[in-house]
């Protein structure tokens, strides 16, 4: 059982692809805990083989891997807005060119994206832990 981030940015970082855990199985016969993520990321520290070590490995995953993912998602709002604006221009061009089916598919994708972004903002407005 690992740790899965459930905060407002969960959807944007695909948090279920980043389940963190303290791993005891180490190559080379060393004993201890190392931080790992289900995406393949591995921490660089070997922690002592105790409950404290296990917790420290979880903390390392949070600090060195999860928090940078969240920070990147926080910084990406304007890039997302620029991309989305471009996609909306594309929809206008498609409608102008009477490619209504294509325009509808692009709009459907955008609506899904906007709903995701709305959930993030609602989570932030509710003051949920970031
Ligand atoms: Zn990960």
Detailed description of the structure:
The mean pLDDT is 93. The radius of gyration is 20 Å and the shape is elongated. It is mainly α and 130 residues long. The protein has a two-stranded antiparallel sheet. The protein contains 3 helices and 2 strands; from the N terminus they run ββααα. Helix 2 runs antiparallel to helix 3.
Notable features of this structure?
2 strands, 3 helices, 2 domains, 55% helix, 130 residues, binds zinc ion, mainly alpha
* Largest sheet data: 2 strands, antiparallel
Helix/strand-derived class? mainly alpha
Q: Helix and strand string, N-terminal first?
A: EEHHH
Bound compounds, each kind once, are: zinc ion
> Could you name the ranges where pLDDT drops below 50 across 5 or more consecutive residues?
none
Strand-helix topology:
Layout: E1 20-23, E2 34-37, H1 51-75, H2 77-96, H3 100-125
Antiparallel strand pairs: 1-2
Helix pairs in contact: 2-3
Zinc ion binds next to loops.
Describe the structure concisely.
With 130 residues, this protein is mostly helical. The protein has helices at 51-75, 77-96, 100-125; strands at 20-23, 34-37.
């Amino acid at each position: 059982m690992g740790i899965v981030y459930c905060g407002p940015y969960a959807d944007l970082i695909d948090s279920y692809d980043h389940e963190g855990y303290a791993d005891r199985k180490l190559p080379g016969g060393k004993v201890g805990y190392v931080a790992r993520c289900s995406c393949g990321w591995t921490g660089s520290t070997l922690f002592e083989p105790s409950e404290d070590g296990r917790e420290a490995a979880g903390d390392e995953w949070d600090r060195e891997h999860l928090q940078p993912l969240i920070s990147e998602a926080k910084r990406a709002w304007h890039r997302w807005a620029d991309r989305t604006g471009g996609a909306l221009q594309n929809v206008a061009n498609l409608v102008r060119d009477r490619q209504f089916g294509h325009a509808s598919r692009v709009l459907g994708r955008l609506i899904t994206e906007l709903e995701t972004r709305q959930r993030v903002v609602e989570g932030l407005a509710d003051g949920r832990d970031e």
